[in-house]
Amino acid sequence: MVLSLSDPLTSLASLEYGDPNQSSILAMNCLMVQLLPDIPNVVSSKDMRYEFVFLIDRSGSMEGDNISYAKTSLLLFLKSLPMSCRFQIIGFGSDFAALFSDLPDEDASRSCKESVETKRLNPLVLHRHAEAADAHLHLPVN
């Protein structure tokens, strides 16, 4: 199936209800959101400064393999970040802990990213195992 939009450069949301009589993915509701803000003076991507915040769930639901998958995924994301970006890693469960006390400048992020790539950095938030019964996402987001 091919879908074509009359105006593909607009923001949109599309909801597809699942069929409760089906099993697995066919029973699930699906939501697609496309956000394309109208930015009149877009600078070239090499001149843009990016900031990424990674939120890592350390609640009880992440016990076992789930926290290992999160660690592996985070390391892959960190290795893939552009050198000129800044990033922060926040682990949350019943409390939260940030890798940096504030978003670091580009030089600190570059140094941290290089440490990740050479396996010298194991962020505090990843050393901790799944610990809390509840996930309190509102704490680090506030």
Automatic annotation (TrEMBL):
<protein>
    <submittedName>
        <fullName>VWFA domain-containing protein</fullName>
    </submittedName>
</protein>
<feature type="domain" description="VWFA">
    <location>
        <begin position="52"/>
        <end position="101"/>
    </location>
</feature>
<dbReference type="Pfam" id="PF13519">
    <property type="entry name" value="VWA_2"/>
</dbReference>
<dbReference type="InterPro" id="IPR036465">
    <property type="entry name" value="vWFA_dom_sf"/>
</dbReference>
<dbReference type="InterPro" id="IPR002035">
    <property type="entry name" value="VWF_A"/>
</dbReference>
